[in-house]
Design brief:
Blueprint: H1 2-26, H2 45-75, H3 83-86, H4 113-123, E1 131-136, E2 142-147, E3 150-152, E4 159-161, E5 166-168, H5 171-182, H6 185-194, H7 197-216, H8 220-225, H9 231-238, H10 254-264, H11 268-275
Antiparallel strand pairs: 1-2, 2-5, 3-4
Helix pairs in contact: 6-11, 10-11
Length: about 290
C-alpha cells in the first residue's frame, strides 16, 4: 500500500510539472518582441568598463570645474572689501597728520641708459612700470629702486597695484640676505621684533610710513583714478604695509625691509638684518643665483 501511494504521488507531480512547462511554452516569448528605445540591453564586458571610465571622467570634469571655481574665487579677493585691511585701525595713516607731510616731495627722475643697463644686468631683466634709482652703493651702482605703485597689465591693459615701493637690486646684498632667510631669518626677525613693545611700535610705524610714502608718490590724476578701482585694489595701494603686508607684525620678506632700511635707515627689521653680520655694500654686477 505504501508503494502504491508513493507511485501515485510521483505520477501526480510528474503531470503537474508537465502542465507547468506547457503553460510556459504557450506564453508569448520576450525574444520575439521588438526592442524599444527604452529597453536597453545590459552592458557587459569591455563596453561596461568603457561606460564606467566615461562616467568617472565626467565626474572628474565636474570636480575639476568646482576646484577651478574655488581657485578663481580665491584669486579675486580684490573685487570685494578686504576685511583684514578695512576692519583694522592700525593702518589708517591718513588720519594722522605726521604721515601727510609734503616736505618730502617725490621726484620721478627717469633712469639714464647706463642705469637701465646696470639694473638689467643686476636683475637679469628690465623692471616693469615706472621706476627711479633710490639709493646707490659707494661704487655708484644702483642699489635700490623706487617703483611706481601702479603698473599696466600687459594682457588687459588695465592698471594694477604694485605694493612693493622699494626694490633691492644689489646682487651682493641680495645673496647675503638670501642666506639669512634660508636660516629661518624671517621667523627669527619676527620673534625679535615681537619680544619688545618698543620694537613693535617702531615696526608698526615703519609700515605706516611706507604706505603713506607710496600713496604720496602717486600723481594727483592717478590718486583720483584709484577711486574707480575695486576697493580691495585701492586699499592694496593705500593701506597695505611693507611689500603689501596686510598686518603690521608680518615679516614675510627681509629683502623688502632692508631696501626700506637703505632708503630711510629707520626700518627696525633692516637694523636686525644689519646686526646679523657684514652686509657688503657693493658686489659683482651679475644676477643673483
Amino acid at each position: 500500500l505504501e508503494l502504491k501511494s508513493q507511485l501515485k504521488m510521483l505520477t501526480l507531480n510528474y503531470h503537474a510539472n508537465i502542465a507547468t512547462v506547457m503553460s510556459l511554452l504557450q506564453q508569448p516569448s520576450n525574444l520575439s518582441k521588438t526592442p524599444s528605445k527604452n529597453d536597453q540591453p545590459p552592458v557587459i564586458g569591455r563596453q561596461g568598463n568603457q561606460a564606467k571610465k566615461e562616467d568617472n571622467k565626467a565626474l572628474e570634469s565636474v570636480s575639476e570645474d568646482c576646484r577651478r571655481k574655488k581657485r578663481e574665487k580665491k584669486k579675486s579677493p580684490m573685487n570685494k572689501p578686504s576685511k583684514k585691511l578695512l576692519s583694522s585701525k592700525w593702518n589708517n595713516w591718513d588720519s594722522k597728520h605726521e604721515y601727510l607731510s609734503k616736505k618730502d616731495e617725490i621726484i620721478w627722475t627717469p633712469p639714464s641708459e647706463k642705469d637701465i643697463a646696470d639694473v638689467t644686468k643686476q636683475l637679469g631683466r628690465v623692471p616693469q612700470g615706472v621706476w627711479t634709482i633710490a639709493t646707490r652703493c659707494p661704487s655708484g651702482h644702483p642699489q635700490t629702486l623706487r617703483v611706481y605703485p601702479l603698473k599696466r597689465d600687459r594682457k588687459k591693459g588695465r592698471m594694477l597695484p604694485h605694493p612693493t615701493h622699494f626694490w633691492l637690486t644689489c646682487p651682493a646684498i641680495i645673496r647675503r640676505i638670501g642666506e639669512i632667510e634660508r636660516a629661518d631669518g624671517c621667523i627669527r626677525a619676527k620673534r625679535w621684533m615681537l619680544s619688545d613693545v618698543k620694537r613693535q611700535k617702531e615696526y608698526k610705524k615703519n609700515h605706516l610710513e611706507y604706505a603713506a610714502e607710496r600713496w604720496k608718490s602717486l600723481s594727483e590724476k592717478d590718486a583720483k583714478a584709484t577711486s574707480t578701482m575695486p576697493i580691495g585694489l585701492r586699499d592694496r595701494i593705500k593701506y597695505s604695509g611693507i611689500g603689501g603686508a596686510s598686518w603690521w607684525d608680518n615679516c614675510k620678506c627681509l629683502h623688502q625691509n632692508y631696501a626700506h632700511f637703505l632708503v630711510h635707515k629707520t626700518n627696525i627689521i633692516g637694523k636686525w638684518v644689519q646686526s646679523q653680520g657684514e652686509v657688503k655694500q657693493c658686489g659683482e654686477m651679475t644676477p643673483p643665483s
